[in-house]
Amino acid sequence: MFNLTHLNRSITAISISLFLGISTQAAENNLTPSTVAQTMSNNTQSTTVVEFGPYKVNVPKGGYYDRFRMNPNLDEVAKDPAAGNIDYFRTIPKKLVETRVGKVWSPNFYYRTSNVQLLMLAPVSKLKAKLPSPLEPLQPFPGYGLVSLTFFSYAVGDVDPYDEVSVAVVVRQPDAHYFHSTELLSSMRTHNYYGYVLALPVDTEIARVRGVYGYQLPKWLTPIDMKIDHQQVQAHIYNTDGKPDLSLTAPIPTIKNVKPQSRIETKTMFNQVDGQWHQTSVQSNTLAFGQKLFPKNVELVRSGGPLSKLIDELGANKVLRLDVVKDAQLALNMPIPMPSLDKIKR
Q1: Gyration radius of the chain over CA positions
Q2: Which of 22, 103, 283, 304 is the most buried (most CB within 10 A)?
Q3: Model confidence over 117-169: pLDDT tens digits?
Q4: What is the CATH number for 220?
Q5: How many domains does the chain have?
Q6: Where are the beta strands (DSSP E) in 1-158?
Q7: Residues spanned by the domain of 225
């Protein structure tokens, strides 16, 4: 039905562990992000109140947010075996930037993360119905675009451990006039990719508050869990009442390790902040990952919750690619205005 040669090349270009789902190094001491998160959770039961702009939030007492307030002493972080090798972050200076909630240290460092992503085919007509103008779906071939469903586990980071789920649409670079295939090849060469996030629930209040009030992203608080072992991944998100929403079970593809800082990529998401278009970039250091094209034995159970309904509305059914990240390092910037996008007329 489809030109598979063209489709494979398109998927390679666009299956990017979208929007925070980037692969990185398996760190020392055989620690995995899931075991780190469990260990940290057991050690940080008590909480303390911190401020994010005008908002007050409970965070783990003695955790990274409590100790460093988003401006960590990397020499101190390096002493934490759970953080792994942090040389990558020494290349990225933090700055105190103005935001809608006041001055904030940026970027936000995620020292140890893991994720699993399904890249799914969806009718472009349904994707356009969910995208605000002037954004357009990037089409690997006419009539079809791409949706990513990604479960994340952030084991060690500036805002402490939390889990997150993203539903996003891969979009064209703003004001692009060349062919979709040309844009795909350009993204491959430059390692720059673009998208629009439709849903981004989290399981800690500090992650929700920062996402909603700092970025104006569609975040809400709900139970999430993800486990990756040597054979399979199991990921679940629940409704706020505890009932199942989405459940994912899939075998683990072969994991490949690459040299530190040999696969640096930038992902950019677009969203409106106070009615004006902004862009938010995340830099990734890819070191350990596994991928499977047209994967078998992937079970995605939809139980009628908000994410299940959203994926149904998008018409996302065919899984084109499975990406599993065993360990990852990320640097997430604060949103910056994009007046050129406000001027585009469709």
Answers
A1: 19
A2: 22
A3: 999 999 999 999 999 999 999 998 889 999 999 999 999 999 999 999 999 99
A4: 2.40.400.10
A5: 1
A6: 47-52, 55-60, 95-99, 102-106, 108-123, 144-157
A7: 4-343
